[in-house]
Each structure stands twice: as C-alpha cells, then as structure tokens.
Amino acid sequence: MEKKRVYTFGNGQAEGKADMRNLLGGKGANLAEMNLIGVPVPPGFTITTEVCNEYFEKGKEAVVALLKDDVEKSIKGVEALMKSKFGDVENPLLVSVRSGARASMPGMMDTILNLGLNDEVVEGLARKTNNPRFAWDSYRRFVQMYGDVVLGMKPVNKEDIDPFEAIIEEVKKAKGVRLDNELDVDDLKTLVVRFKEAVKKQTGQEFPSCAYEQLWGAICAVFDSWMNERAILYRKMEGIPAEWGTAVNVQAMVFGNMGETSATGVCFSRDAATGEDLFNGEYLINAQGEDVVAGIRTPQQITKIGSQRWAELQGISEAERVAKYPSMEEAMPEIYKELDELQTKLENHYHDMQDMEFTVQEGKLWFLQTRNGKRTGAAMVRIAMEMLHQGMIDEKTALMRCEPNKLDELLHPVFDKEELGRARVLTRGLPASPGAACGRIVFFAEDAAEWHTNGHRVVLVRIETSPEDLAGMQAAEGILTARGGMTSHAAVVARGMGKCCVSGAGAINVDYKTRTVEIDGVVLKEGDYISINGTNGYVYAGEIPTQPAKLSGNFAELMELCDKYARLKVRTNADTPRNAQDARGFGAVGIGLCRTEHMFFDDEKIVAMREMILAKDVEGRKKALDKLLPYQKADFKEIFKTMDGLPVNVRLLDPPLHEFVPHDLKGQEEMAQAMGVTVDYIRQRVESLCEHNPMLGHRGCRLGNTYPEITEMQTRAILGAACELKKEGYDPHPEIMVPLIGILYEFEAQEKVIRETAAKLFKEEGVEIPFKVGTMIEVPRAALTADRIASHAEYFSFGTNDLTQMTFGYSRDDIASFLPVYLEKKILKVDPFQVLDQNGVGQLIEMAVAKGRSVRPELKCGICGEHGGEPMSVKFCHKVGLDYVSCSPFRVPIARLAAAQAVIEESL
Ligand code: ADP
Ligand code: MG
Ligand code: MG
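Structure tokens for the assembled complex are given below, as produced in the milestone run.
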C-alpha cells in the first residue's frame, strides 16, 4: 500500500489520534483527538512529519506531486462539511495553514490565516457575511502574513521594520488614528493595494490570486520554516533532532474578527506560573489569531477572578474594570460556561494541565489547539502533587511528570527580605514567570548574549520580545517587557525556560535609540542595575542581594515521595558548614566528598600551609603541620556537628602543591620573612614545584606517600574533631578517603599511617570512634585492579572528574580549546565532564563495582564527581548498583528525583 501522507479530521471523526504525535505533530494529533472526544474543532487535515523529510530529500516539485491528489480530496471533504468552496467567489472556503512539530515549539513556526482570498473572493465574502470590514480586514491580514512568511518579506534583521507594518503606520498617520481597529473599509482597501505593490516591488512578482497556488506556497513555506534559523536554534537548545520534521495542518477558518460577538483567546486549565488549580486565560473581542499573543492590544481576562486580580495589579478600580475590561465570564457568560466545561473535559481527558487556543465566531465556540502546557518548575511540582491528591494521576506518574533539572528553578535564590524593604519600587507589571532576577539593563538580545559571555548578569528590557530574541532571553537573568499579557511571547518563553519575567509593565518607556528606559520619572541607562520579581511583578531600581530558597510544601512532599521509591541515597559535596547545612536542608543524607584544600585558603592558614610546603625537611614540615592541625580540627568539628549522625567522607589533601605557593615577588618576600630564609630560597622551592603536567604530577596520595606527616596531621584533625564531639555528646561518622590510588600498595601505605595514628590518638583521648578508610577510584588502573584494592579499602568513591580526564585523556583545564568544535561536529554528543560517558567511563565504574564486591560484598560505592547531580548520570549510577551519589548542595533535590525515576523507569 502507498504510504499515507494526509490524515483528515472533522465533524467528530478523525483518521489520527493523540498517540500519533510523532507522525502528525502535537498539534495535528490533538486536533484529531479533540474531534474524537466531541470538542468542536473546525475540519481540516494534517500532512505528516514524514513528508517534511521527503520534502528535504526530494524537493518541492516532487513532494507537491506526491501530495496533490490527497490534498485536493481532503479539501473537498472540508468543503462538504463547511458547505462552501475553496476559491469560490460567492461562497468561499478559507483555510489556515499551520505548522506543528512533535514537541511544541511555541512561536517558532509561522501560521498563515485566511488563505483563499483574492480581489474577487473578498467582495464575495463581504456580500455573504454582509460585513465588508471583516472581509477586508481578513484580506489585508492574509496578504501581510503571506507576504511575510511565504514570500519571505519579513525582515531578517529585526531592527528593520516589517514593510507591511510600515505601510499601516503611514496610513494611520495620514488619517490621524492610533489603533488598527480605527481604520475603516476604505483604509483597509488602500492597505491591500499598497501591500500588493510592496510585494511586486520587493519580489518582482504579482501576489498569487489562485487559491491552490496560495495553498501550495503556504504548505511548502511551513516545511521551509523547519530549517529557518530560529527553529534550528530552538531545536539545539531543547535537543530536538532535525529528523523529527514538522507536520502541516490545513484547517477551515473560523473567524474571531466578525464583530462584537466574536473573539479569540488562549487559556490554561491551571496556572502555568504558580500551578494553582485555577482556570485562566486571556481573550480579545473582534480579533484574530495571534493578536492575543502579539502584545499589540492588551487582552482581557477570561475569568472574573483572573480579571479582578489583574485589575488589582494594574491599580484599576472595580468599577473601571467592569466598564472597560470585563472578563469573558461577565461579557459572554454562555460561551464562558461552554469554554469552562470543555477545558475541564480536556484536562480530565489528558490528565495534565492544558494550554488551549480557541476562537468564537458569532457566538459559536471553536477549539483550535490543545497541548500539555509548558510550566515553571514551581508549577510543575504543584500540579503533579495536586493532581496526585485529586486522584487524577498515581504516585509514579506524579514523579515522572517532574523533570529533575527543572527543580533547579525552585532552588533559585529569592530577594533578601531585609534588603527588599530598603529597595525602591519603580513599578509593577504582570508576574509572568516567577523568581527573582537582578542584573544590568540591556535592550537587545544580541547584547544580552554578548554581555553574558563577558561575565555580566543582565536583565533584558524590551517593549516586547519575538522569537528572534531567544538566545538573548536565554542569556539574561530575567526579562522585563512593557507590553504583552501573561500569554505574550516573553511570558510563554520565559516560563518554558524557567526564567524570571515581568511582562506588560505599562509604565516603562523603552527607548531603543538612546538605550534608556524611563519609569515614572526615573531614567535608567544601558548597564544600570535593575531588579525584577517575576512572582509578584515588582520592578526595583538597583541591585538587590538574594538568599537561597527552602524546601517546603508540595516540594517537600515530592521529595518525600522520591525517598519512598529511590534506592540510591543522595549525599552532598560540601567543604564548609554553610554548604553542609544547605545540603542537609535539601535532604542530603551525608557528605560524599569533603575536600580539605579549600580550608587552607585563609590569611593565617595559607601562611602555615605555605610554610609546610616550602619547608627544607621533615622537621620544618612537621613544625608547620603542628600549626595547621588546630585549624583543620576546628573546621572538621563544625562540619561534623552540622552533619551530626550522618557519614562525612573526608578526602586527604589532593591538589598539586604549587597551587598553594606564592608566584609573585611580594608573596615570596612575605614567606621568606615568615620562615626566616632568603627570598632566593623561596623562589627556588617554588620553581621546583612547577610541573609540566600538574594534573598527572605530584598530587593525590602521592603527596601523602612522599610526606606521610601530612596524612598523619590530617588524620589527627579528622578523628581528633570526632573525639571531641563524641565527648560533647554528638554522633560523628567520619570516613577517611585516600585520593588518586592506582596501585594497591599506595593505599596500604596510607592506610597504615591512618590506622596507627588513629590508635595512638584514641589512646590519648580515651575514646574510640568507629571510622572507615576508603579510596577514590579515579585512575583507570584502580578500576582495573579494583578487586585487589577492595581487599583493603572499605569503600569506593568514584571521582568521575579525574576518571573522565584520564579515560579520555582530555585535560579538564584545556578542553575548552577543542570541545566546542567536537560538539559542533558531533564527534562528541555532550561534554563528558557534564554527562557521564556511560560507554567508556561507565564501563570502568561497572567493572570496578563488580570486582570490588567480589572480594568484599558489603563494599559501599558512591560517586562524587560533578556527574552526581546530573539526572542521566544519576540513573546510570542506580543501574550499576552504586549505593549513593554525591553532588553539590543545590543539586541534591534533582538527584533525589532522578534516583526515584530510575526505579520507576526500570518497571516501565
Ligand atoms: P502557534 O503554533 O504559533 O500557536 P497556530 O498554528 O496555533 O500557531 O496558530 C496561531 C493562531 O492562529 C491560533 O491560536 C488561532 O488563534 C489562529 N488560527 C489558526 N488556525 C485557525 C483557524 N482555522 N481558524 C481561526 N483561527 C486560526
Ligand atoms: Mg505561530
Ligand atoms: Mg497555537
């Protein structure tokens, strides 16, 4: 059988359904599904995503020939249902041509509305509807959209004005009006004539008048748009493969611009910003398509409560609100009721929050789209947990609904309360996407990206945003716009990115030319600091410090649910009591890596440390170590106290020593003075410490094995702190970890020092602390000989940063010189220092665990590299049977969720 390329839908029937989104795209699959479940949808058909690939393989002509019969037949079907005819003058059928990929790509592809109009048909439409204004408004929109999208007249450089918009401005100016809807029929006719002249002038061709010619042009343009720059950029950001392709939906037009009983809108079954279970949305009377999202007219709220909240934010009185900005619930109560019923039906059907688009044509409601709505991290958690409570989904579904990396947003800092009290409020806009953001003002997306690259935090301030601004929005801490509602481009995209956004701040006057923004008399320039709160819409002058977020409410509950399913435990990498405290708050059940070297970078401590390193002999080293001991002990004591009752894995000194010594003359003079030696001596010692390949040099256990007195001191500090705490009634669980082992004997020698020191210390102190001695597995040879090493080591911790470095032979410090090219050329899919390389490095881990447990079945294994907080890597760790992962404090909740998902995915 010939491959099926076109799937029809309409009048309660459809050839496709919801689970065919790979073939029909999300939009097409859901248009079909809505038909099947009795939601009113204008009839139409979907050309499959496979055809998109054929289009790029075989070219335009070939694909049009392949599609011709099916498309013409499907149009006939729509004609029958709509009782009108495509291209007919007296009774014309108009259609929209819409793109729709597998994953929703908001604002990425261009839709063409009102297709099928020409100079004769428009007259027929005016007669048929008895509404010339509507007919001509539709026509001028069509010529404009078709010109922009299909004929490529939309300026590439967004600084340039759209040629059609320029004409509209001229006509409005000549007439002395401000708004589009103040133009009358004759003005609209003038617009069409001038638009077509502009088309002729710019493309050298007449505007196509044949309906089918228009249709083929539009279908091909949708396919072409799959390869446009912003689509490619979006796919790159979201990791969507180009092979997925886009489907094309052709659908009978329904008109929201037929007068006061017509409208168009966008709505959500729950709040996409906060997750609150509250139907909400925006609509515009007598408007069409993208008017709501385009931010040209300020849309009104759908529900009364939404409208009241909106008015409050805008400082509008209830009387004024009711008179000027009534909600749909108040203005069109019957339609509202139907809309509310259908949105509930859709949410119940899909068991997820729906993002819907609809149009009302002369009192009749039509749905044009539904999809699972994009949401912020906070909304993601709240919706999952509330749907669980409402019995709509089960526990496993709730856990799988949450995307681990998106939890990051909930851990983002909030403005410091006290500082906030002192801050100056400039204005208030709409709370479009929650969070706190603070940065320097930039006005253009390119600048945002560039400033960000140069290390600045920026807030992108614009009148409105468009799809061209994606990269800049991504680079910014937050986005502030003057125009547009909660469903404007800026708001939708920011929520998708989890980026703070305040939209529709009407009081701000942006001047792109002078690069300034005036807010209530205050003028801010490019580069000035501004702070915005996307949770409540407030905009502040200057820089406001932030503080970390806390686990509570739904989020805390979700985390408990994770623990119910997860087998893998989550520890944290923490070197300070502060970090340890944060991590414990996020549910870490121990420290998986406590580095000791950071503790030395303190004014006094660094001098003693340098003395130790630069000492002539053992004697001198011991003297310096004696000075360091009390410092180290005090540091450990605080950390053990914070982690009372939980294991703390302390790594012995690891980095190359030259990292600690002064390389400048002034520093060397100071050391000479402190140690009573000549500057020359210091300089020579410093030079002798320099290595060609420090990462492979004198570091890790090689330090402890050449200078055992360091290990001795550190053991005394670690266990001494534990002894003191025990006497004070605490319950410390120290673990001592020897880094960079490659040979069993390296470990044995260090273990001997540790155990002997411990025995001596316990005798002196009169207490005994149970402790473990383990090792890092970070040198490939250690993984290869893991069974031998496990005969002595009580636990393994995979140091996947070094293990990745040594397995690939990529220097962590030098990878920037080639990694971007490798990623670009797809030699590497991802940065192996961020996402664990399961095939290579992963194999070493799997093998080492098996070998180690073959001689010591109870061997505890964990991971402490950066990978411990990366969801895919966490899932891998679960699979190979590690006991725990350890990650930075702010990634602990992410790892906990990934650990739970790993268990659920096993049973899928
Ligand atoms: P996007 O993917 O950018 O949301 P859509 O294809 O959904 O683009 O089209 C944008 C808007 O155009 C829709 O929300 C709807 O308002 C309008 N639209 C599309 N098709 C039709 C149609 N057949 N009748 C009326 N309006 C339509
Ligand atoms: Mg679009
Ligand atoms: Mg849409």
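The mean pLDDT is 93. The chain has four domains: 48-252, 263-374, 413-547, 566-656+691-907. Further analysis is deferred to the final report.
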